[in-house]
Write a structure and sequence with these properties.
628 residues, alpha+beta, Heat Shock Protein 90, Ribosomal Protein S5, domain 2, Rossmann fold, 4 domains, five-stranded mixed beta sheet, 22 strands, elongated
Length: 628
């Protein structure tokens, strides 16, 4: 071969500064690109054999990554189709030309042409992010082809000459520059390969590893072992998402889950994705045990393109409420060097998002229908996904009506329809609204729950991180339904049935009692009123209006209600005119004694709400001791 020198055909004065600074955000990507190209070359060779275009011996496909720290080189080798000198000039020197595109065009009638990974072109040039010089040694599969050598030092000039490769395939040799010498460490390369190449469809070898093998028995008959050096194959070439569900058992899915997340509890269940129209998508999504915590476990879904890892930031592909899932998604319709703007604008990505939402809804509906008891047992984990989906995804919310569950403080479960039918007889107000009562903390609000149950009311338990938003969504979605926390008002007014309770006090006595409590209560934000309540109820009840408390809770969670969050807390203090304590206070002739009794009753009400703390709690205890 005649030695040749020339200029790389590009459309900018120098592409290398662009590659190093702008085109790739992370230098480690170079290894993914070059290994993917090597796999691509082997896949092409397989394809040519199947089409009768290549008559030679294919051999065992293998990509090798070799590190020579002393020579400061990293070599990526394959036994794929190789290149002729002319192909190097076409595929490597003409940066804007895509070798894979031409190959696909030539063999577009082939059934499995979409198996080809990546493309020559800019992916190859990622090598210059870490190397001062890049060399190619290659030998084409074509009959009579001569080996070729290409070398470039990062300028727009190259040198093309006769190569020294004797077998079909390609070596890409990177001469690593000083600022990227950390890539000359075994551990660093192993980590990158584990990240990007762990499931590539062709074996990828990185050096060797030592394993113990049986070696007969010793004199005492105990087994002996010997150390054997073996190729270090870093990938599983046929991961479970590339197989049909009928080929797999539960153990296969669980084993794969442990491979992805070694220190995680077993998942609740999983969904196997497999669709080829109107887009291509495979994968397995797992529902993890998250115990009501929506702030953990994000970025656990890994996105692949034909088994090459791309990213674990999949928020534009997977609906927001399913970001808590674990697993893998693989789609050849998503390019390796995917950009945020591409994901947001691409039509296939939007279809994938919709498809995943539907598959999850189908799976949940199936689980609920086939084994409701098991579904209820898992609700503590499943409920987070379902409620998140309901408040954030209208299409999912419509389908979730059939399998979202409500559970009460007695730990009974109901669908929305079932629960409405259960409580409607006792919990319908004077305007025909069915009122759902709920507690956010069954222990702290026990006295309020007890009062509600004495009136024949049922109380739901809604104590999850999303339940404020979930409650508001239900109220908007359910016809003629109101939802109130059980401590939002005195029990007689939670469900207004227009029932009148007579007062045992005269109007003057009620005013006097109100005055005593207003003078005794110094805590800001307390609005005192004397109410005609049941004689067997509490002497004093402290409540916050349902609307105001809900807005404040949402503001605390960052729900865009900052106006309400900045407002001072205001509570209603309902003094029970019919409780014996009211008569006792009025019968007391000493005003200080009246205030002391009022203060004690008020502190009891605060204690029931968990609002009595610090010095006020200490004073209450000391006062209680004196009264004993």
């Amino acid at each position: 071969m005649v030695q040749e020198k020339g200029t790389i055909s590009i459309h900018t004065e120098n592409i290398f500064p662009i590659i190093k600074k702008f085109l790739y955000s992370d230098h480690e990507i170079f290894l993914r690109e070059l290994v993917s190209n090597a796999v691509d070359a082997i896949q092409k060779a397989k394809r040519l054999v199947s089409l009768g275009q290549f008559q030679g011996e294919l051999g065992e496909p293998l990509v090798q990554v070799k590190l020579d720290a002393e020579a400061k080189t990293i070599t990526i080798s394959d036994n794929g189709i190789g290149m002729t000198a002319e192909e190097i000039k076409k595929y490597i020197n003409q940066v804007a030309f895509s070798g894979a595109s031409e190959f696909l065009e030539k063999f577009k009638e082939a059934k499995d042409a979409n198996e080809i990974i990546g493309q020559f072109g800019l992916g190859f040039y990622s090598a210059f992010m870490v190397a001062d010089k890049v060399e190619i040694q290659t030998l084409s599969y074509q009959q009579g082809a001569e080996p070729a050598r290409w070398i470039c030092d990062g300028s727009t000039t190259f040198e093309l000459s006769e190569g020294n490769r004797t077998e079909r395939g390609t070596d890409i040799i990177l001469y690593i520059n000083e600022e990227n010498k950390d890539f000359l460490e075994n551990y660093k390369l192993q980590t990158i390969l584990d990240k990007y190449a762990k499931f590539l469809p062709v074996p990828v070898q990185f050096g060797t590893k030592t394993e113990s093998e049986p070696d007969g028995e010793d004199e005492e008959g105990k087994p002996k072992y010997k150390e054997v050096e073996k190729p270090n194959i870093i990938n599983t070439v046929k991961p479970i998402w590339t197989k049909a569900p009928s080929e797999l058992k539960d153990e296969d899915y669980l084993s794969f889950y442990k491979e992805l997340y070694p220190f995680t509890e077993d998942p609740l269940f999983w969904i196997h994705l497999n669709v080829d129209y109107p887009f291509n998508l495979t994968g397995v999504l797992y529902f993890p045990k998250i115990k009501n915590d929506v702030e953990i476990q994000r970025n656990k879904i890994k996105l692949f393109s034909r088994q090459v890892f791309i990213t674990d930031d999949v928020k534009d592909i997977v609906p927001e409420f399913l970001m808590l899932l674990h697993g893998v998604i693989d789609s050849p319709d998503i390019p390796l060097n995917v950009s945020r703007s591409f994901l947001q604008a691409d039509g296939n990505v939007k279809k994938i998002n919709t498809y995943i939402t539907k598959k999850v809804a189908d799976k949940l509906a199936e689980l609920f229908k086939n084994d409701r008891k098991s579904y209820e047992e898992k609700w503590n984990d499943i409920g987070v996904f379902v409620k998140y989906g309901i408040v954030s995804e209208p299409k999912f919310a419509e389908r979730a009506k059939d399998f979202v569950l409500l559970n009460n403080v007695k730990k009974d479960f109901f669908t929305l329809t079932e629960y409405r039918e259960k409580v409607a007889p006792a919990q319908t107000d004077k305007d025909g609204n069915v009122v759902f009562l709920y507690s956010a903390n069954a222990d702290r609000q026990h006295s309020y729950i007890s009062a509600a149950e004495k009136k024949g009311y049922d109380v739901l338990l809604l104590d999850g991180p999303l339940d404020n938003h979930f409650v508001s969504h239900l109220e908007r979605d359910l016809e003629k339904t109101q939802i109130k926390r059980v401590d939002a008002d005195v029990v007689e007014k939670l469900i207004d049935k227009d029932e009148k309770i007579e007062s045992s006090l005269s109007e003057e006595q009620s005013k006097e009692l109100e005055t005593v409590f207003k003078e005794a209560i110094t805590k800001p934000g307390m609005e005192v009123s004397v109410e005609n309540l049941s004689a067997d109820g509490l002497p004093v009840t402290v409540t916050m209006d349902e609307f105001m408390r809900r807005m404040k809770d949402m503001a605390a969670m960052g729900g865009g209600m900052n106006f309400y969050g900045s407002m001072p807390d205001r509570y209603k203090v309902a003094v029970n005119a019919n409780h014996p304590l009211a008569t006792k206070i009025l019968a007391e002739t000493n005003s200080d004694a009246q205030k002391a009794l009022a203060q004690q009753a008020f502190d009891l009400a605060l204690l029931a709400q968990g609002m009595l703390t610090g010095a006020d709690l200490t004073a209450f205890v000391e006062r209680s001791v004196k009264l004993i």
